[in-house]
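fold-stage: in
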Amino acid sequence: MTPQYDLDFDAAGEELQAPEPPASELLVPHLQLPKVSRNLTVKRAQQELVEGVKEGVKCQCCGKLAKVYRRKLNAGMAKALIILTHLSKLPVVSDEAGFVASADLFKTLGGQHRDWYLLAHWGLIERGTPTRSKTREGAGTWRPTFDGRMFVEKHANVARYAVLYDGVLIGYEGELVSVVDALGDRFDYSELMSWGGA
């Protein structure tokens, strides 16, 4: 028996179009995939995705929105990093390695500043033990990194924006900012640094 190969082109160099499998052969028959033009090639679909990803474009293959996001290091995130730094030094709240349960940080923040876990994209915090949670993105244990502590103590600056695609860091944009710049007028740095505990 001769081997069967999935080829993209026929002998004349024309691109082949794969026939659609019958519904009975689909692995997930209830999955609704977008209708794709019969003459759309994978290469062309990839090209359309790359061209439109900055503004956001619907993927021709899976139907999901593909978009590059700029996440700003905001005042709430800077406050959360300062509080996490304090909590990581408290043996009552943290473990011996300085990791703090996200639930304890969340409670200390009064349920505000829900995007603090994005600080990991700047390398300012690191995750210890992840916890599965359908409701909370940053579930698990976290602690500030060396860079995070340097940022809190005003010895380091970071880019204003982290650029993400599909939740993965692809770069940084904007001017370098200090922790005081990030806090802006919303929070007082001195007051946060003198915070007394949980």
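fold-stage: in (second)
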Amino acid sequence: MFLIVFFFIYQLMQIIFLPTIFLYAIIRFFKKKSFGSWKERFGLVPRLSKRQPVLWVHAISVGEVLAVEHFINYYKKEHPDHRCYLTTGTLGGMQVAKKLTADQVSYIPFDFLVTTYLAFKRIHPVALVLVEAEIWPNLLMLAHFKKIPLYLLNGRINPQSAHLRRYLGFLYALFTHIFAQSTQDAQALAAMSAIPQRISVLGDIKTFNVIEKKTSVTGSSTCALHAATPSLCDCPCRLTARRRS
């Protein structure tokens, strides 16, 4: 019930502050600070077919995009019949994202109800993976209402913004599973209403990319590298099979 009430309050607040948001967008435009593709920002992202399962991965900027490089490579290798859709929020993130092996790349739409709903209708994800500290209320709530599994990869809590995130902490309870960077992050996420039984400590996945690159040069074994990754990669696949049956 609380989530429904918050959903409507959030939409009302966005309507009230829409003129301010519009003014901010105009100022950025004249200062030549790019939002990326306006078409994609308003939800008109590239459309994907429903024929193949689609995993939607969102990484906001360069660091987060680089962090999911190994995950995307491994996921596509293990599940070649699935498609991986990668969204990002910055120009730098887009430039890096285009170099990865994701099947489709676009900017994340603005977190308005209509734009986010349009994105879901065009991408048709069977699961949604967010990276590190991403909390977009409409994105999370719509995924929850549409019964699309939610995962937080490389989850962490920045101490500087923890007091602000606490007000939206209840949204962490919507995640199907959270893979935290550290035990400290796992405890902080649990304190913000994430369900403890749905939290695992995976470590910083950025180190996986370093190991993978080193392995490609040395030819050494990657058993240690892949040991933790399948637990995340296989979750969307099991859920896809369950939704089809």
